[in-house]
Amino acid sequence: MKIAVGLSGGVDSSVAALLLKKEGHDLVAMFMQNWNDTTGTLHGDCSWEEDYSVAKMVAKKLDIPLIFTDLSDSYRERVVEYMFREYSLGRTPNPDVMCNREIKFDAFLTKALEQGADYVATGHYCRKESFKDEDNREVLRLLAGRDPNKDQSYFLCQLTQQQLSKAIFPIGELHKREVRALASQAGLPSADKKDSQGICFVGKVDLPVFLQQKLETKNGTVIKIDSAFYNDSEHSKTLYSGFRNEDNEYLRVISRPCTYSPEWGVIAGKHNGAHFYTIGQRKGLNIGGHTQPLYIISTDPLSNTIYVGEGQEHPGLYRKALFINREEIHQIRTDLKMEPGFKGEFMVRIRYRQPLQRAMLVMHQEGLYIVFFQPQRGVTPGQFAAWYSGDELIGSGVISA
After folding, report:
1. 207-244 b/e with 16+ CB inside 10 Å = b?
2. CB 11 within 8 A of CB 183
3. pTM score, two decimals?
């Protein structure tokens, strides 16, 4: 069995290669160059060159061939353009999820298969299992990594059964400290290398500067909404006006984000473009003079207005439910596809590293409603909601509202 290891120069992929080498597999390492533009990056240099240098040293140490593959065109078309498009619509994308779906387990997988590989191995902290259904067909399960602090299954929430069938996750059973220890014991050059941060393959960026490659600055107004607004607003009254949980209209109302009007608040300052900001954001507003920090509770790209609330417990930051359009629902377990009328309890995550949250999933003709048992902070359109049964990731979808 020939396995292509995505060798990034980091410790996780290095140990993935190390473990497969010890098992005696026919290995080839492949390094992906996905980005070489430094516009907006905070380090100001091409970090991929340093990563490639480390990857070459790791491959030499493990005595496996290393192939360089340039996927920068695919990355720009499938990931970066997606980011620009989503931000222009006032939504907040997740490039890491898309990078895995479109690059690592699509464009890169294709390159690996062209090299004669049967599988692709990565350094993700997650696990894969399989079973045979009643028709003797293999069904693959995507499971959380054993290390609860490093579990990366969320980033793989858009993978298909076909993609999973070609994937191997050698470090999914390990904790990070064990991975570091194995790298150190083997004398791998990446043993003490810091984990990458920021956008997948781009790194840490000054987001407004990065986005200004395509999105223009546009001065607008920041409106502060007082907490007392929610005591008397029509929106608040509607939420608690006696609808029963199973009523369609109740689900539509509680999953709909509150919309604001400038006359409902006071001007707090100015900004340079609503599309540069996201719900829950605190940094970057540069507006002082308040007892507590200001947090963004809503953005309106059409009027180029940002609405903020004072304090991290501001009620505008919290939502009871969210909605996913039917065409945006993705089932990893296609045998568990939800049809209209479905209702079931799952554990849900709306961002990486967020503790799983208890929720009820209700499938209607128009799409999926996720109703949380406890209100959630910072529900953000454009991000991915992923639902789990135990430690298995069942499906995901783009938050529409």
Report:
1. bbebbbeeeeeeebbbbbbeeebbeeeeeeeebeeebe
2. yes
3. 0.91
Alpha helices in 156-296 (DSSP H): 161-165, 176-185, 207-211, 229-232, 234-239, 248-255
CB 362 within 8 A of CB 335: no
Positions marked catalytic = 99, 200
Residue 367, phi-psi category: left (phi > 0), alpha (psi -120 to 50), beta (remainder): left
Rounded to whole angstroms, the Cα distance separating 173 from 123 reads: 11
pLDDT tens for the chain, 401 residues long, are 899 999 999 999 999 999 999 999 999 999 998 876 655 454 544 578 888 999 999 999 999 999 999 999 999 999 999 999 999 888 999 999 999 999 999 999 999 999 999 999 999 999 999 999 989 999 999 999 999 999 999 999 999 999 999 999 999 999 999 999 999 999 999 999 888 765 555 555 566 677 777 788 899 999 999 988 887 654 454 444 444 555 678 898 889 888 899 999 999 999 999 988 999 999 888 898 899 999 999 999 999 999 999 999 999 999 999 999 999 999 999 999 999 999 999 999 999 999 999 999 999 999 999 999 999 999 999 999 999 999 999 999 999 97
Cβ(399)–Cβ(90) under 8 Å?
no
Distance CA 14, CA 188 (A): 8
Q: For the chain, what is the radius of gyration of the CA atoms? A: 23
Place of tokens 């994308």: 93
For residue 315, the Cα-to-chain-centroid distance in whole angstroms is 25
What residue has token string 């006359």? 263
Of the CA atoms within 13 Å of residue 22, those in its CB half-sphere come to 10
Q: How far is CA 13 from CA 109, 193, 220, 369, 401, in A?
A: 15, 12, 44, 37, 36
- What are the b/e assignments for 275-311, b being 16+ CB within 10 Å? bbbbbbbeeebeeeeeeeebbbbbbbbeebbbbbbbe
CA distance 36 to 44: 11
Are the C-beta atoms of 108 and 71 separated by less than 8 Å? yes
Domains of the chain and any CATH numbers: 2-210 (3.40.50.620), 214-317 (2.30.30.280), 318-398 (2.40.30.10)
